[in-house]
Amino acid sequence: MPTDCIPFRETNYFSSLICDYLDENNALKPFYNHFPKLENFESQISEKQNAFTSETRTVLVQSLKKQYESVAISNATQKHIDLLAEDNTFTITTGHQLNLFTGPLYFFYKIISTINLCKQLKAAYPKQNFVPVYWMATEDHDFDEINYFNFRGAKIQWDRAASGAVGELQLDGLEHVYEVFSSQLNSTTNAEELKSLFRSAYLEHQNLTEAMRYLVNTLFKDYGLVIVDGNDKELKRVFIPFMKDELIDQTSFEKVSQSNEQLNALDGNYKIQVNPRAINLFYITENIRERIVEIDGVYSVLNTEMTWTKDELLRHLNEAPENFSPNVIMRPLFQEVILPNLCYIGGGGELAYWLQLKSNFETQKVVFPMLLLRNSVLLITDKQKEKLENLGVAVKDLFLNQEDLKTKVTQQISDIKIDFSKQKAHLKTQFEDLYQLAAQTDNSFKGAVAAQERKQIKGLEHLEKRLLKAQKRKLSDYLERVILLQDVLFPGQSLQERNMNFSEFYLEYGNSIIPKLIEELEPLKGEFCIVTL
Predict the structure, then answer these.
(1) How much of the chain is helix, strand and coil, in % rounded to 5?
(2) Pairing, β 89-96 against β 129-136
(3) Residue 335 CA to chain centroid, in angstroms?
(4) Contact 250, 327 (CB under 8 A)
(5) Cα 433 vs. chain centroid, distance in angstroms?
(6) Sign of CA dihedral 262, 16, 29, 342
(7) In terms of Cα–Cα distance, which of 45, 64, 240 is closest to 129?
């Protein structure tokens, strides 16, 4: 299963912020702690070990054991949960929404990056233990973002009314989704395994949290993955002091706003991913997850009639912390408070908002984790690779937008050279002499020379485009074969990993796909991987 890699920047699919972060741009260093290199974990381990208490470890382990009570736990996962009680055990964490049937392929790459980094760290730091963690976003309420997955170019969708935290949703209507999905599968062994996996996860559990825990545990339990549900009363009890600060002092609004201003002031033209609220907590109860707001000392829950004075709200927080839910600004802090975590692994968008949070962590005296961009992968079959080789197209060329790809291929295979760069350079040299002549006679002629230069360069460019267009028509059959391959590997002119579901590859390769990816992917390599199956 050969693997090739290209730099993230050269894919043109990653933001300048993430590319500059990967290049360790000096301007971004104030926004993170240690860069994710193997040798830097020593300092991160020391900082987290000094800050993380045995009391929190005890609560964490007890909560995990309770969460796993109805799950067929593997020996590897049980061992990892037990090890979390020891002060030399740390976590590497990724998180994701509860997408139907895992959603896009990159869900797998997040978890595999997490598993592989733990293995790599154990080899480098044998005196410590490292546990891979998947944090389920059970408290999220964006149902429309998670209620479908793509299969063979079509959307398999769960249609139902939804409100409140998605993890608590009952699984009504998924019988129909199962029928739609299974009707598109044949009766091979791999297809039957997919049907069984979907049926067991979604038709034999009570809510979406239980279904997702079962699904992910079934897929990754052999690697000791530990699944954490943060929507847990005892875990939130540990977080009470930070939620109290959020309600009363609103520290995160001040600190994240300052970080946003600092990022905006940099030369990178970076996009701010999230903006803080005055209070970055939701109130959560059955079918409700709404923002908590404060006006003139009165706290209320939007779109409800619930109100409290400050003292009433703090009393309620102490009595029922499970009713308070962190938003995107506070969830990372919650995670790092309750986990002995060293590194968070996420996609480009996630890392972008984590970079906005460091100053808030410092003010709250919580160790800021390392931030690692997950593995990104293009899966390509031997047959597809052979077709590309026969066409004389490199895999990395497929990352170009379609018109640029057509132009490059046309220029490569055309029997006439359609690149006027040499002629343009020669023309510019000639006009340099004309500028000098104009300067020696009358400076007012410089404008006329410049106008003539623009006209002739534009003429060459127009001629170049016409010739290219003519050659593209002449080579249309050839280009169509190239574009067809690009469309298959880059559905909708986007990355495969952001569109396709694992089930399409499972049909062909069965349960060997995960160990193959675990064998190939290197989380600290820092490049986009092209994996030939």
Answers:
(1) 55, 15, 30
(2) parallel
(3) 17
(4) no
(5) 54
(6) positive
(7) 45
For residue 45, which amino acid is it?
I
Read off the pLDDT band of 447 (50, 70, 90).
confident
387's enclosing H/E stretch is helix 382-391
Mind spelling out the 3-state secondary structure of 430-463?
Answer: HHHHHHHHHHHHCCCHHHHHHHHHHHHHHHHHHH
Q: Residue 246: name the closest of 288, 285, 292, 284 by CA.
A: 292
Looking at the DSSP assignment, which residues form a beta bridge with residue 5? 529
From the CB of residue 253, how many other CB atoms can be counted at a distance below 10 Å? 18
CB-neighbour burial class of residue 225 (10 A; exposed 0-12, middle 13-18, buried 19+): buried
pLDDT tens per residue across span 147-198? 999 999 999 999 999 999 999 999 999 999 999 999 999 999 999 999 999 9
Q: What is the pLDDT of residues 481-524, one digit of tens each?
A: 999 999 999 999 999 999 999 999 999 999 999 999 999 999 99
Token pair listed for 154: 């079509």
The residue with tokens 């530990």 is 226
Phi-psi domain of 185 (left: phi exceeds 0; alpha: psi -120 through 50; beta: other): beta
Q: Half-sphere exposure of 85 toward its Cβ, with a 13 Å CA cutoff?
A: 10
Q: Are the beta carbons of 525 and 5 closer than 8 angstroms?
A: yes
Residues in the chain: 533
The string of pLDDT tens digits covering residues 464-477 is 667 667 666 777 89
Q: Cβ distance 482 to 391 under 8 Å?
A: yes
CA distance 351 to 33: 13
Q: Is 223 exposed, middle or buried (0-12, 13-18, 19+ CB in 10 A)?
A: buried
Q: Are 500 and 104 in contact (CB under 8 A)?
A: yes
CB 270 within 8 A of CB 355: no
Distance CA 186, CA 178 (A): 14
Q: Which two tokens stand for residue 309?
A: 């004075």
Task: Confirm if 404 and 68 have CB atoms less than 8 A apart.
Answer: no
Query: In 291-330, which positions are buried (b, 16+ CB within 10 angstroms) versus exposed (e)?
Result: bbebeeeebbbeeeebebeeeebbebbeeebebbbbbbbb
Whether 327 and 281 have beta carbons less than 8 Å apart is answered as yes
- Which one is predicted more confidently, 478 or 167? 167
Q: Which pLDDT tens digit goes with each residue over 36-58?
A: 999 999 999 999 999 999 999 99
Q: Which residues contact 404 (CB under 8 A, 6 or more apart)?
A: none
Contact 491, 499 (CB under 8 A): yes
What was the pLDDT predicted at 1? Answer: 42
pLDDT in tens, 237-264: 999 999 999 999 999 999 999 999 999 9
Long-range contacts of 453-456 (CB under 8 A, 24+ apart): 453/427, 453/428, 456/427
Do residues 324 and 284 make contact, with C-beta atoms less than 8 angstroms apart? yes
Q: With 70 as the cut, is the pLDDT of residue 305 above it?
A: yes
